[in-house]
Amino acid sequence: MSADTSFAKRSNRAAILFLSPALLFVFAFVAYPVAYAGWLSLFRWDGASMPVFLGAGNFVRLAGDAIFWQALFRNILVALSAIVLQVFLALAIAYCLVRIVPAFSRIFLFFYLVPVMVSEICIGLLWRFMYNPYFGLVNAGLSGIGLGGLKRGWLGESETAFTAVVVVMSFTYLGLYVLLFVAAVRNVPESVYEAAEIDGAGDFRKFFSITVPMVWDAVRANSLLAIIGSLKTFSLVFVLTNGGPNHASEVVSTYLYKMGFGSFEMGYAAAIGFAQMVLTALGAWIAFRYMKRIGAGAGAWS
């Protein structure tokens, strides 16, 4: 055995030794729960009695469950709104903080990051107070500017509950993407902007022709985070509306919770969770590939 081969084997053993705690963690808290959920989805189980094998019965039921598909559609709407109201709006704000008002960037970043540092449960409770139809700040503000006719029971009406939740989500996560994009925009070489200024380009032109193409990798990564987070969102919806009224703001995670811990249909809840995982991975992969294709032609924007 050569010295190089012996060294490579020792290096591999050392790498495995150092990676083993992380591998054990992944197996215990990721691989095993996913496998167990997949196994449980094949049974009818109330959490106490003996499981009854159904095979694909839970998935057949899921395919015909109108509430599940409506909840999934709302998750998709949340993901689309996150890309527009969180990712791309955050990129525009980050550009303004770095290129237009750099002197005030730190204080603005602080205010944008406050919601990120606060628990989602606290934010949900705060916004429930603000949306209160009787003494909430939203309706009081509308009355104060002469738009009292627009006052609503924002979280208690089917027409407005879901939109109200989306607004809270956008407010909560916007600051995180602003912070990430500020770092990306600061890494764009100053010489590129100076050359554009010599050619007479304004801030609008520089944003779309320089900033967006040059930070496109960050746009893709943040969009992927937004899509994954949107497809598995739970806390804010649970605190604000619990999926109501009459499933008007239901998302997949809240529906899963109700089936598992409200109706005690653990097997069906596992099927919902397993389907959610697969659809989230598929949606993230499709979005990532699509944005990669767009990024390949980003030079055309300039």
TrEMBL record:
| SUPFAM superfamilies for this protein | MetI-like
Q: Where is the ABC transmembrane type-1 domain?
A: 72-287
Name of a matching Pfam family: BPD_transp_1
Q: Which InterPro entries match?
A: ABC_transporter_permease, MetI-like, MetI-like_sf
One GO cellular component assignment for this chain's record is: plasma membrane
GO annotation terms (biological process):
transmembrane transport
Please give, as recorded in its UniProt entry, the membrane topology of this protein. Multi-pass membrane protein
The name on file for this protein is Binding-protein-dependent transport systems inner membrane component
Classification lineage: Bacteria, Pseudomonadati, Pseudomonadota, Alphaproteobacteria, Hyphomicrobiales
